[in-house]
Amino acid sequence: MDALKSSIQEAARLKREFEGDDQRQYLHQEFVYENVMYSVKRGLPWAAVVQIANLCKELLPELRGDVIHDTASHHTTMYDFMVHTYIHHQCLYQAFLKEEVNLTCMHSHLEIHIPPHPLPLCEGTDLRVWEKQQALKELTAIDTAKTEEIHRLKEQAETQIMEKLQVSLGDLSLDDRLDKQALESMVRCFLQSEAEVVKEILIKKIRAVQELLEIQLSQTALPGAGPSSDVSGFSQKGSTSGSTKT
Predict the structure, then answer these.
(1) CA distance 99 to 70
(2) Could you tell me which of 30, 28, 25, 32 has the C-alpha nearest to residue 10?
(3) Percent of the chain, pLDDT > 70?
(4) Alpha-carbon span 90 to 93, nearest angstrom
(5) Would you say 216 and 207 are in contact if contact means Cβ atoms under 8 Å apart?
(6) Under a CB-based contact definition with an 8 Å cutoff, are residues 149 and 208 in contact?
(7) In this predicted model, what pLDDT tens digit does every residue of 192-203 receive, in sequence order?
(8) pLDDT mean across residues, the chain
(9) In 187-244, beta strands by DSSP E
(10) Where is the composition biased (Low complexity) (predicted)?
(11) pLDDT digit string (tens) for 14-40?
(12) Which residues have a Cβ under 8 Å from the Cβ of 216 and sit 6 or more positions away?
C-alpha cells in the first residue's frame, strides 16, 4: 500500500509540473499516462512504475530524431507498445515533437493477399508430376499457336489469290474484245502470279507444320500426352493448290 500511495502522489506531482501551454501539457500527461498504464498491465511493481513515470516525463522532449538500436525481441515489444499507444495519437505527438499542426493526412486502402493454404500431403501433387504437367501445358499452348498460324497462312493465301484475280478482272473492259492469244496470255500471267503466292505460303506452312510435329513429338514423350492438333489442313491446301494450277 505504501508503494501504491507513493505512486499516486508521484503521479499527482508530475501532473502539476508539466510545462508549456495547455495542449502541450495535455499531450505530455497523455504520454506519461500511457507508459504508466502499459507498465502496470505488464505486471511491473509499483516502485518500477514510479521510476517509469519519472523517466517518461524527461524522455519525451529528448526523442526528436533518435533511432533505437535493439534486439529483435525488444523490437517486437516496442512495436506492440507503439500500436497500442502512439499510433492512436500520432498527430498529437507529431505536433508536440515537430511543432506542426493542421497537417493533411493521406489514407490509402491496401489489400493484403495472403498465400493460399497448402493442401494436405495426401492431396498434393508430386514435384516430378507437376513439372511434367507444366511442360505439357506449355507445349499445348505452343501447339495451339502453331495450329492457328497454319490456319492463318491458309486464309492469307486464299485472300491474296482472290485479290489478284479481282485486279486482273478489273483491268478488263466489257467493250474490249479479246482474241484467243490475249486471253491465254492473261490467264497465264494470273496462274503464274498465283503459283508464286502459293509457293511462298506453302514454304511458310511447311516450316510451321514441321515445328508443330516437333511439338507433338515432345508431347508424346510426356506421360498421358498425345497429339492435340490436326495438320490435315496442310495436305488439303496442297491438293487445292494443285487442282487450281492445272
Answers:
(1) 28
(2) 32
(3) 56
(4) 5
(5) no
(6) yes
(7) 777 777 777 778
(8) 70
(9) none
(10) 232-246
(11) 554 444 556 666 677 777 788 888 888
(12) 143, 227, 228, 229
What is the rounded CA–CA span in Å between residue 100 and residue 98? 5
Q: What is the pLDDT of residues 60-106, one digit of tens each?
A: 666 656 666 767 777 677 777 766 776 666 666 666 666 666 666 66
CA-CA distance, 187 to 165, in Å (whole number)? 10
Residue 32 neighbours by CB distance under 10 Å: 22
Query: Which residue in 126, 118, 143, 138 sits closest to 214, CA to CA?
Result: 143
**CB neighbours (10 Å) of residue 52?**
19
Cell of 25: 501539457
Taking residue 157's Cβ as centre, other Cβ atoms within 10 Å add up to 22
User: What whole-number distance in Å separates Cα of residue 178 and Cα of residue 181?
Assistant: 8
User: Which amino acid is present at 40?
Assistant: V
* Whole-number Cα distances in Å, 148 to 232, 233, 240: 13, 11, 19
Taking the C-alpha atoms of residue 37 and residue 24, their distance in angstroms, rounded to an integer, is: 20
Retrieve residue 102's grid coordinates.
493542421
Buried b (16+ CB within 10 A) or exposed e, 200-223: ebbeebeebbebbeebbebbeeee
Using alpha carbons, select from 25, 24, 5 the residue that is nearest to residue 16.
25
- Contact (Cβ atoms closer than 8 angstroms) between residue 32 and residue 14: yes
